[in-house]
Amino acid sequence: MSDNNGTFSYTYSAKQQDEVKRIREKYIAPEENKMELLRRLDKSAEKRGTIVSIVIGIIGSLLLGTGMACVMELTDFFIIGIAIGIVGIIFIALAFPVYKTITKKQREKLTPQIIELSDELMQKK
Fold first, then answer.
1. CB of 33 closer than 8 Å to CB of 116
2. Residue of 118, 120, 101, 114 lying closest to 41 (CA atoms)
3. Is residue 74, in this structure, part of any structural domain at all?
4. Which sign, positive or negative, has the C-alpha torsion 72, 75, 79, 81?
5. How far apart are CA 13 and CA 51, in angstroms?
6. Who has the most CB within 10 Å: 17, 21, 110, 119?
7. CA distance 9 to 60
8. Which of left, alpha, beta for 6 (phi over 0: left; psi -120 to 50: alpha)?
């Protein structure tokens, strides 16, 4: 502490300054940098396709299991079980092509933003 011309100044220790910074960062809105935005956009391109394909795969697996149960345990439903199992196999087989199609469409939609951000990042370096 010093008293120069009627002014008061105080300096914190390094430990206190770090604590002050941490507290201050809690209250200041975080600024998203362009690299984080680029990563987030890249992940979002795959998210919808992943969710849809997982749902289709789960439905297909349940149908296949139901068909197998009908064939092995409920002999009166043998033909119906085979049909349900085939539908389940079709669903399972469609899960990956659906993922690829949805992801491709999402990437096409996000391409202008990704190219713009990547160009800006490349120019900085």
1. no
2. 114
3. yes
4. negative
5. 50
6. 110
7. 71
8. left
Query: Encoding tokens for residue 44?
Result: 């979002």
Tens-binned pLDDT, residue by residue, of the chain (125 aa): 455 567 766 666 777 788 888 888 778 766 667 788 888 888 888 999 999 999 999 999 999 999 999 999 988 889 999 999 999 999 999 999 999 999 999 999 988 888 888 888 788 65
Helix axes 78-124, 34-72, angle to 10 degrees: 170
User: Where are the strands (E) in 6-45, listed by range?
Assistant: 7-9
Distance CA(98)–CA(3), nearest Å, equals 73
86: containing domain: 32-124
Q: Look at residue 51 and tell me if it is in a domain.
A: yes
Task: Decide: pTM greater than 0.90.
Answer: no
> Structural domain tally of the chain?
1
Give CA separation, 49 vs 18, 19, 24, 114, in Å.
43, 43, 39, 18
Is residue 95 in some structural domain? Answer: yes
Residue 8 lies in a domain: no
